Amino acid sequence: MLPAERKRRIVELVTRQDGCSVAELATELDFSKATIRRDLQELEDEGRIERSHGGAVPASSVRQERSYGQREVDRLDAKQSIGARAADLLRDAQIVSFDAGTTTMAVAQALPGDVGVEAVTNMPDLATTLMEKGIDVTVTGGSLRPRTRALVGPTAEEFLEDHYVDLLFVGINSLDAAAGLTTPNEAEAAVKSRFVDQAARIVLVADSSKFDEQSFVTVAAIDDIDTLVTDEAPVGELAAALDDAGVTVLEAQP
Fold first, then answer.
1. What is the 8-class DSSP label of residue 30?
2. Is the pLDDT reported for residue 218 higher than 60?
3. Tell me, which fold does domain 3-60 have in CATH?
């Protein structure tokens, strides 16, 4: 097992089990405790886990910005189900934008190879996925944030000001009845908001772990959304707010 794969498995195990000891990881992965400790230190430096006494726990607070690598393995099955359900919403000849994120990436990965759309994104990795499916894709430009693999800044925002699309797939860190769609980083929030402004129809793709939480910066209000695709339908105040705003909630099948 290569080091990158081993570290990916560590993040997956720590996230799934809500914490693991060094001994548990060493046994599960069949590597020495010394190797595991070195991996944990590197993963903490990258923001993908947090060290604890004798092991590691997930860096899971929605008020903190987790790295793309950590989010990539978190609730992977749910994201894949959401991606497959959301991909069904595309129609031929549409121009579709994809906000940067792990769940929007799941939508891109679920698209059939013969879909007749054009795409815009601020995520180079996602652009590559679309290109490999034969989809014409335009990248916004901007400054690349290694932590989230998103292009942000004035160049990205100015590009989006002049481009309009039929459909937007947007991801988010937190969704709350009062605060709406929120995210930890101001630069990312600005680009996400511009995506929302320029789309005729907005599809939010978010798993249920994002519900009833607030992050730092507001991206959009609940009534900006047309459709929410998720793994588990919201309840309580959030469900009521979505209903009042006329948002269609689609529950993906596992």
1. T
2. yes
3. Arc Repressor Mutant, subunit A (1.10.10)
